[in-house]
Design brief:
Layout (H helix, E strand, L loop, with lengths): L2 H9 L2 H10 L6 H5 L6 H13 L3 E3 L8 E3 L2 H35 L7
Antiparallel strand pairs: 1-2
Helix pairs in contact: 1-4, 1-5
Organism: Mesorhizobium japonicum
Protein name: ArsR family transcriptional regulator
InterPro entries: ArsR-like_HTH (IPR011991), HTH_ArsR_DNA-bd_dom (IPR001845), WH-like_DNA-bd_sf (IPR036388), WH_DNA-bd_sf (IPR036390)
């Protein structure tokens, strides 16, 4: 599985997306990340392992604590991939707007005919 596949596979789960959203605020322990969810700590740890394997988070060491932190590079690569398609769609919408404007101009009554 390449990096982009791993990133999108990890992002496919809403719990993992919520964990990443929490990590935007800063580092957090597994217990802190598990608080808002009605699931066991081992289940949260499995989600963290998927995120870690995708490179979306890393874990540090602070005495007994292993805080998780967000890693931006895989998200930036996913954003770059999506951006190419956004530009294609933006160009398509601009051409559609121009066509609609031309059609409106053709249908509008000519003010010089009066």
């Amino acid at each position: 599985m390449n990096q982009l596949d791993a990133t999108f596979a990890a992002l496919a789960d809403p719990t993992r997306r919520a964990i990443l959203a929490r990590l935007i605020q800063g580092e957090a322990s597994v217990m802190e990340l598990a608080e808002p969810f009605a699931m066991s700590q081992p289940s949260i740890s499995k989600h963290l392992k998927v995120l870690e394997n995708a490179g979306l988070i890393s874990r540090g060491r602070d005495a007994q604590r292993r805080p998780c932190r967000l890693e931006a590079k895989p998200l930036a690569e996913a954003n770059d991939w999506l951006e190419r398609y956004r530009k294609i769609w933006e160009g398509n919408f601009q051409r559609l707007d121009a066509l609609l404007d031309a059609m409106k101009a053709e249908r509008a009554p000519d003010s010089t005919d009066q």
